[in-house]
Amino acid sequence: MTAAEGVGVPLAEVRAVLGRAGAAAGPVEVAAALRGLGALVSEGTVRETVAALRRESAGAGPLEPYLALRGVTDVLVNGHRQVFLDRGAGLEPVEGVFADEEEVRRLAVRLAAAVGRRLDEGAPFVDARLPSGTRVHAVLGVLTDVGTCLSLRVPARRPMTLAEWVAGGSMHPRAAELLTRVVRSRAAFMVSGGTGSGKTTLLASLLGMVEAEHRIVIVEDSRELAPAHPHVVRLEARAANAEGAGAVPMAVLVRQALRMRPDRLVVGEVRGAELTDLLTALNTGHQGGCGTLHANSAADVPARLEALAALGGLPRAALHAQAAAALDVLVHIGRLSDGTRWVAELHLLERDEASGLCRAVPAVRFTGPGDPVLGPAAARLDGLLR
Prior knowledge:
Layout: H1 3-6, H2 11-21, H3 27-36, H4 43-57, H5 64-67, E1 74-78, E2 82-86, E3 91-94, H6 101-114, E4 125-129, E5 135-139, E6 149-153, H7 162-167, H8 173-184, E7 189-193, H9 199-207, E8 216-220, E9 232-236, H10 250-258, E10 264-267, H11 274-282, E11 290-294, H12 301-311, H13 316-326, E12 329-335, E13 341-351, E14 358-365, E15 373-374, H14 378-384
Parallel strand pairs: 7-11, 7-12, 8-9, 8-10, 10-11
Antiparallel strand pairs: 1-2, 1-6, 2-3, 4-5, 5-6, 12-13, 13-14, 14-15
């Protein structure tokens, strides 16, 4: 509750008075508006009301303080009654952020407008990246049962090192050693995991270990990867404009990236037809390529690749042949029962000679702080990274 509301004047009424007068939300104008509404005006009331109005009209409004909290990766809004934060240990509820549905909708529309996107009944959802780098997805209440929903993904303020992953309890020391070898051997790898599991954060950590003289070209649907590396070029896909023109899909960007002399080609998140271009690149001399992929486990990656390859018109047999030859290591990250992110396993792809299909074979699993569990592909992984 703001100071204005504390003396019986809703912030919406102050805003309406200023709007009708075409006045800015400065101290003099706000004091006059409060007097006109019959409120008792004090220096503290005016100062706090001005701050509340400016907070509402800049950045992410009332969500801005939560986005700035240390360790926050996601802020989720389910209508005006429910707001949740994720600081790496599961979702935490936050109370009293929004007064009503109109306030949430107004924020969602303003965030969409800030990046030149439309959000109304005719276009009731939007996915965009704010100038701050925060990724925002909004769905208006016409499509939900709780009101306007917002999902904000906060970019990492700085890339984590593998040592920090280990110190934070999200990675076994042996996993850090193996992943370091994966990067330095220029093996092609894919990081899999569920939504919010930390795939992008882990990939940024690994790219930070790439040799300084190597050129990294990153292709993303929405820019999130910012590795600590001196030579990075980032390409971002573009949605169609209001007239339905101007779209630049991921698959096109992957092909353009190949003409930019990448030492490491990176697809931030493989989610469609761009998979076929990535596999082609990895099979034609582009070593050390990598990306992330949504999957429930490393064992599920081949099936997930099949589904994505179908979007690019790549037959099943061709996909398995290409994947087996292109991808060296699968790294899976998930969450423990307490919500903590955890690098869980490394697999290798193995192709069955009879069927021609490939499957993910466990090389090493990390079930906790104890000794890792070696799988059938452990020796092959060691030879690959040697």
